[in-house]
Write a structure and sequence with these properties.
Distance between the termini: 41 Å
Order of helices and strands: EEEEEEEEEEE
Helix content: under 10%
């Protein structure tokens, strides 16, 4: 019914930039709350950034604030994560998630994993020194 496909991951040197994309197939993409999460080896999955259902409000984890920017393009049905000034500690599998129900706050930025009902397969980001 709903598919999320991440792309844009790869190998980059510290200080470099990368832009991740998450293409969604849902008809009501513009109403989705969406977020990015990441999981490094041996660590739990953590919140990175998210955008509210109305596309107005965003939030970013303290560890990436000022370096990463989440946005979405409703015309292309795509969520983005622009990553600048990458650090080795940013190395992880990055996954996008969507809250697709047609109800719930349109302004709330969802930071918890349980707030999402659809997940992509993830894309690997590796930052070398």
């Amino acid at each position: 019914q709903v598919q999320l496909v991440e792309s844009g991951g790869g190998l980059v040197q510290a200080g470099g930039s990368l832009r991740l994309s998450c293409a969604a197939s849902g008809r009501t993409f513009s109403n989705y709350a969406m977020g990015w999460f990441r999981q490094a080896p041996g660590k739990e999955r953590e919140f990175v950034a998210a955008i509210s259902r109305n596309g107005v409000n965003t939030d970013h984890a303290d560890s990436v604030k000022g370096r990463f920017t989440v946005s979405k393009d409703n015309t292309k049905k795509t969520l983005y994560l622009q990553m600048n000034s990458l650090k080795p500690e940013d190395t992880a599998v990055y996954s996008c998630a969507a809250y697709t129900a047609g109800y719930g706050s349109t302004s709330h930025v969802r930071k918890m994993q349980y707030e999402y009902n659809w997940w992509g397969q993830g894309t690997q980001v590796t930052v070398s020194s």
